[in-house]
Amino acid sequence: MSPTSSPTSASPSSFGSNSTTTSWLVHGLLAGAAIAAAAGAYVVISTRRSAKFRSRVVGIIPARFSSSRFQGKPLVPILGKPMIQRTWERAKLATSLNKLFVATDDERIAEICLGFGADVIMTSESCRNGTERCSEALQKLRKKFDIVVNIQGDEPLMEPEIIDGVVKALQAAPDAVFSTAVTSLKPEDAPDPNRVKCVVDTHGYAIYFSRGLIPYNKSGNVNPHLPYLLHLGIQSYDAQFLKIYPELSSTPLQLEEDLEQLKVLENGYKMKVIKVDHDAHGVDIPEDVEKIESLMRERNLS
């Protein structure tokens, strides 16, 4: 496909190695940029660089009908269009994707998606999370891809530049098998367990994710001078790693926090993180739909 891009306010950047936390951010998403090779005992992919290194990219939007918090969420109307269609239309604008699919286990979702022109891959109901659904979808594709981007279907306002950003970050980090994005955490979102927090090292690799506030100080209060980070659902994987991801045993921290990213970290793999300017507006519960629609009206988005 040949998507066209549209201007947004997003500006992907990566973490630098300055000593102060306030100077973490530096521009670091130039495709092919050299990243220091890690020991890589756990990394199963080759770190040999070439002009075609991780060049073939597929985007997958995992979508399931059953949800404990919001049944049928992908099909909820957002200003007259199903949310899954809104997400598809935004993702099509990303310039890094060679192909885009919806992966679902539900015929109702598949029918709607085919109706607005999306390519659909049917997956099993046994997938426990979006990463496993992407893994199953990948193995059903006839063509081979180097990177798989997991595009969250419940954030219909995701900027296509952020999709491109996580792809470039993984292409530029041969020692990582996973990349994702974070943005600034609003103080009022600090206690919300649905707002996942992240901490990174000075080279832009993830250290930990939590539903609780991290870092957490002795006072127990939010530090207004500390740049807390909110994890965004968008993430990309090395395709070879994604194939083995479902075979990795669940880990204690993953189960306790109910965060799939922790299984990656606990198994010793590296995850690259980029910082972006993005006002996160995910749809977690029915009440979020009205918030999204109000925001779209304010921005004249139809």
From TrEMBL:
<dbReference type="InterPro" id="IPR004528">
    <property type="entry name" value="KdsB"/>
</dbReference>
<keyword id="KW-0808">Transferase</keyword>
<feature type="transmembrane region" description="Helical">
    <location>
        <begin position="24"/>
        <end position="45"/>
    </location>
</feature>
<dbReference type="Pfam" id="PF02348">
    <property type="entry name" value="CTP_transf_3"/>
</dbReference>
<keyword id="KW-0548">Nucleotidyltransferase</keyword>
<comment type="similarity">
    <text>Belongs to the KdsB family.</text>
</comment>
<keyword id="KW-0472">Membrane</keyword>
<keyword id="KW-1133">Transmembrane helix</keyword>
<keyword id="KW-0812">Transmembrane</keyword>
<protein>
    <recommendedName>
        <fullName>3-deoxy-manno-octulosonate cytidylyltransferase</fullName>
        <ecNumber>2.7.7.38</ecNumber>
    </recommendedName>
</protein>
<dbReference type="GO" id="GO:0016020">
    <property type="term" value="C:membrane"/>
</dbReference>
<dbReference type="GO" id="GO:0008690">
    <property type="term" value="F:3-deoxy-manno-octulosonate cytidylyltransferase activity"/>
</dbReference>
<dbReference type="GO" id="GO:1901137">
    <property type="term" value="P:carbohydrate derivative biosynthetic process"/>
</dbReference>
<comment type="pathway">
    <text>Nucleotide-sugar biosynthesis; CMP-3-deoxy-D-manno-octulosonate biosynthesis; CMP-3-deoxy-D-manno-octulosonate from 3-deoxy-D-manno-octulosonate and CTP: step 1/1.</text>
</comment>
<dbReference type="GO" id="GO:0005829">
    <property type="term" value="C:cytosol"/>
</dbReference>
<dbReference type="InterPro" id="IPR029044">
    <property type="entry name" value="Nucleotide-diphossugar_trans"/>
</dbReference>
<dbReference type="GO" id="GO:0044281">
    <property type="term" value="P:small molecule metabolic process"/>
</dbReference>
<dbReference type="InterPro" id="IPR003329">
    <property type="entry name" value="Cytidylyl_trans"/>
</dbReference>
